[in-house]
Design brief:
By secondary structure, the chain is of the alpha/beta class. The protein is built from eight helices and seven strands.
Length: 201
């Protein structure tokens, strides 16, 4: 399957720490009715052992299927730094892709310490084999983002992709080009934002 070009998926967590986007059914299928269980992590040793096994049978790139790879800011960031260090320590030579929220990379409410920890975390992931991040961008129109309840601003998005570029991590965007409620003005606004900020590499 892999040798014929198939993509190999593994899982490091389930659910989403935010779990509030109006366009996503994660809360119904992967989340929980309990707030503290909206996002659940898988043990790091188990993830690392799986990566080591996959590498040993000749698979050198995988995709994490997690809706929200990072999870809760403080615990999640410490956890992925530990995961990255474990991958490096075990000398596992495998590239991987993840899904992440914009605010996991940058938020306007971050303290200086938290901002530095986020940069450290993503730099560690890059060193351990992270090759690309999928971001649920959805739109360059503020009113669309509000309707989707994405929970981030376009200014935060610009800062987030700037951090990824500085670290050298590629990204790709989830983008909803049309929705039943959008106006022509929103469509134009979104396309102009994407072009102006060169959001699509």
């Amino acid at each position: 399957y892999y040798d014929k070009g198939g993509e190999v998926y593994i899982e490091a967590s389930r659910g989403c720490a935010y779990c509030s986007c109006s366009i996503c059914e994660c809360k119904d299928f992967l989340g929980s009715i309990y707030t503290e269980l909206k996002w659940r992590d898988r043990p790091i040793d188990s993830i690392v052992n799986e990566l080591k096994y996959l590498s040993s049978i000749g698979i050198n790139d995988v995709t994490f299927s997690d809706e929200d790879f990072i999870g809760n800011d403080h615990f999640g960031l410490s956890r992925i730094i530990k995961l990255a260090n474990s991958i490096i320590a075990k000398n596992i030579n495998i590239e991987y892709r993840i899904n992440a929220r914009v605010k996991s990379i940058f938020s306007g409410t971050d303290t200086e310490d938290l901002r530095a920890k986020k940069i450290q975390a993503f730099a560690s992931l890059k060193d351990s084999g992270l090759s690309k991040i999928f971001l649920g961008f959805e739109s360059g129109s503020p009113t669309q983002l509000k309707r989707y309840n994405k929970g981030y601003s376009l200014d935060e998005f610009i800062q987030a992709i700037g951090i990824l570029k500085d670290i050298g991590i590629q990204y790709e965007l989830g983008y909803i080009s049309l929705d039943p409620l959008m106006s022509l003005e929103e469509l134009e606004e979104s396309l102009n934002f994407i072009k102006e900020h060169q959001c699509i590499p």
